[in-house]
Amino acid sequence: MFTPRHIKHSRLLLRHARKYLRYKNDLLSGADREEIVNRMQDLSNALRQRDHEKVHSTADALDKMLHRLTPVTWESHWRENCEVILVAIVVAVGIRSYFLQPFKIPTGSMQPTLNGIIGYPSTKPPPNLLGQIGEFIVLGRNYVNVISQEDDQVVEIEQRKFLFFFTLSRVICQHQNFLVYASPDTLSHDFKVFAGRTYRRGEIIARGAVDTGDQVFVDKFSYNFVKPHRGDVFVFRTNHIPGIREDPEAGSPFYIKRLAGLPGDRLRIDPPFLYINGKKADGYGFARVMEAKPPYRGYGPGRDYLANPNSSFTVSPDGYFALGDNSYNSYDSRYWGPVPEENLVGRGLLVYWPFNQHWGLIR
């Protein structure tokens, strides 16, 4: 750390010169090769003698010669930039494939532990542009403000995807169309916009805020070495699970739930409690739900599985039982059974955006 900067620069220049000789040895003329070797020797001698002025002059001479032999062109700049971008893409794909995968919480099945997309209808107009930008960056919140320009009726609401990340809706009316930055489910559930509804001229169709779902990183690495733990918030694929519809464009959706049952576990729900192997479920996540303190409501009975408080269900040897923390509004293993082991993706690690109360490690 105490080495002078010009000494470090000169040593680095020598390494580059040696590398250049190795790469271009068969292409250089005898005179150029000999001159490079001589200038490298001069710089090495100056470094050993610790002659400050001589180090500067010999390093400058070697640097100018290397630049003369390898002139910088616009093609080399483009090539270097493309190489950097390509390497960055390969690294990002590798990290996403084997270590960390970003995932967006689409629904409210894990609320309030993790937020899905939530709409907040309002009669007040949106804040100014600067306020909207600030709220989007910090809270992941955007605003919708759609007003009917004439007496009309909603005919259809089409879902549109933009850049694979953004979900929009085209509200198609008899006489007018609107493109809204909200999913059809959000418009229907939170803003009561659906096919067949009529509006008068000047009437508000949808106005208010839409909070994006929590964005989480999924740890795809751990499950390669350790078995999933009971109580994990985990992500899994839904292919080959009966009753779950496949998106024609995106394929089988990914779900995120809490892992309630390991292979061989015996489960029973007696609202608001979940029993595992004859005992109340143990762990912070389960206890928080079973306390049933608003907005948690405890565990509710299922439909095809765990529907009766007097009967239990034993998880298959290659399955995992998934339950949502928002039990009364969660489509989970109580409806379609255990998740096959091959469908597991990884453990929900942390919320990286937005910067609300959920930001940080997931519990």
List keywords for this structure.
363 residues, alpha+beta, Substrate Binding Domain Of Dnak, Chain:A, Domain 2, Umud Fragment, subunit A, 3 domains, 8-stranded antiparallel sheet, 4-stranded antiparallel sheet, 8 helices, elongated
Descriptive account of the structure:
The protein is of the alpha+beta class. The protein has 3 domains: 5-69, Up-down Bundle (Substrate Binding Domain Of Dnak, Chain:A, Domain 2), CATH 1.20.1270; 118-211, no CATH class; 215-361, Umud Fragment, subunit A. Helix content is 31%, strand content 27%. It has 8 helices and 19 strands. It has helices at 5-24, 30-49, 52-69, 74-98, 129-139, 184-191, 284-290, 333-336, and strands spanning 100-104, 118-121, 141-147, 152-162, 166-173, 177-180, 198-199, 204-211, 215-219, 233-237, 254-261, 266-270, 273-276, 279-280, 313-314, 319-323, 339-340, 344-353, 360-361. Strands 1, 9, 10, 11, 16, 17, 18 and 19 form an 8-stranded antiparallel sheet that branches. A hairpin with a 6-residue loop joins strand 18 and strand 19 (360-361). Helix 1 (5-24) runs antiparallel to helix 2 (30-49) and helix 2 (30-49) runs antiparallel to helix 3 (52-69). The longest helix is centred in the N-terminal third of the chain and has 25 residues, at 74-98. The mean pLDDT is 90.
